[in-house]
Amino acid sequence: MDKLKLLLWPFAALYGGVTALRNTAYNKGWFASRKFELPIIAVGNLTVGGTGKTPHVEYLLRLLRNYKVAALSRGYKRTTKGYILADETATAATIGDEPYQYHKDFPDVQVAVSEKRVAGVEQLLQLPMPPEVIVLDDAMQHRAIQPSLNLLLTDYNRLFYKDRILPAGLLRESRKGARRADAVLVTKCPASLHEGEMQHIARMIHTYSRRSAPVFFTGFRYGQFVQVGRPAHIGTHVVLLTGIANPAPLKAHLQKHNFKIHKHLQYPDHYSYKPADLAALKQQLQEYPPETVVLTTRKDAVKLLDAGLQELVSPLPVFSVPIEVYFLEGGDTFNELILQHVRSYYKL
Fold first, then answer.
1. Left, alpha or beta for 50 (phi > 0: left; psi -120 to 50: alpha)?
2. Domain count along the chain
3. Are 98 and 179 contained in the same domain?
């Protein structure tokens, strides 16, 4: 343990003690935890930020397309409070950037936000056409609700069993929280990950999770660029624009494919772009070859297309880079696990 982590250890011990006491209160039934009579699939992690929850939630929304599905999030960093069901007036500011992305990309999905997930589920079930399945986004630590299936995500580059509790590390709670997982997904894996390492990682995960919880390994694929601003020929000269927790994989992908990144405009995760940022971006582009384009993430793109910014974005050569999840192996097994779980609620 380095000197800084040693200094932070008393604070981490205190934080860990508080979270352990809270979990014990839920486990013993001292705090109420509500269960519902429909499949509720929670997607979450033990660490703060950057494990790839959004693409995995989208994977589930696609997989469950034959059901009436709702996605329920807290709506992190939104400007509103309480329960909101996304409609044509929704923006990234009113419901949060990730729920807004779900709303834009999955028009048949009921997207809602609520700080209190129990109240959010209750509101969804009162709709004229209530959902048959609910996907809870970032709900691993939201113990007031009992999901029917708990999916734990852990980043291959920062596996939870190697991490420490805040502030000495990035863990929101003890590694023992993995016991609540019904399945574990190791995300952002390199395509070259070999079977021996997978087995080692699975063994280490099972020292904290239940041994019955299967471990899956997923990676990201980047798709064809999608026009966000004006049309332009995409060569090799780019400015990278990101407001996500970990842009390193995207940056590495572009460099691997011989793109010259003249500038990386890196903003904090969940950043809300302002007109001044677009003016600065326009000015920045003038410093580079005329064929330079701006590449950004889908998560950033939905915010850039907000009504207040669209006029400023449309004259700029901005493109988003889509991302999708793939399984290194066992994808069919994972799909069947999810679908069988949902089918079990609707057997005739």
1. left
2. 2
3. yes
Report the CATH number at residue 297.
3.40.50
pLDDT > 90 fraction of the chain, expressed in percent and rounded:
79
Ranges 26-40, 46-60, 228-242, most confident: 228-242
Tell me: do 203 and 339 sit in the same domain: yes
pLDDT at 15: 66
Question: Are 116 and 195 found together in one domain?
Answer: yes
Measure the CA–CA gap between 4 and 264, rounded to whole angstroms: 29
CA distances from 179 to 4, 17, 161 (A): 29, 17, 12
E-strand ranges in 92-146 read: 110-113, 133-137, 145-146
Report if residue 26 sits inside a domain: no
Statement to judge: residues 78 and 146 lie in one domain: yes
Report whether the peptide linkage leading into residue 167 is cis, meaning its omega lies within 30 degrees of zero: yes
53-63 and 331-343 helices, crossing angle to 10°: 60
**β-pairing, 149-155 with 40-45?**
parallel
Beta strands per DSSP E along the chain: 34-35, 40-45, 69-73, 84-85, 110-113, 133-137, 145-146, 149-155, 183-187, 215-222, 226-227, 237-242, 260-266, 293-297, 318-321, 323-329
Q: Considering the domain boundaries, does residue 113 fall inside one?
A: yes
Q: Are 220 and 55 spatial neighbours (Cβ–Cβ below 8 Å)?
A: yes
Q: What pLDDT does residue 23 have?
A: 72
Band (12; pLDDT cuts 50, 70, 90): low
Same domain, 189 and 267: no
Helices (H), 148-209: 195-205
Instruction: Give Cα separations from 206 to 121, 143, 179, 182, 250 (angstroms).
Output: 31, 22, 9, 12, 30
What is the dihedral angle through the alpha carbons of 57, 62, 66, 71, rounded to the nearest 10 degrees? 30
Range of the domain at 88: 38-221+327-343
Report whether 111 contacts 61 (CB < 8 A): no
In terms of domains, do 109 and 210 share one? yes
User: 């400023």: which residue's tokens?
Assistant: 312
What CA–CA distance (Å, rounded) separates 184 from 43? 10
Contact 179, 210 (CB under 8 A): yes
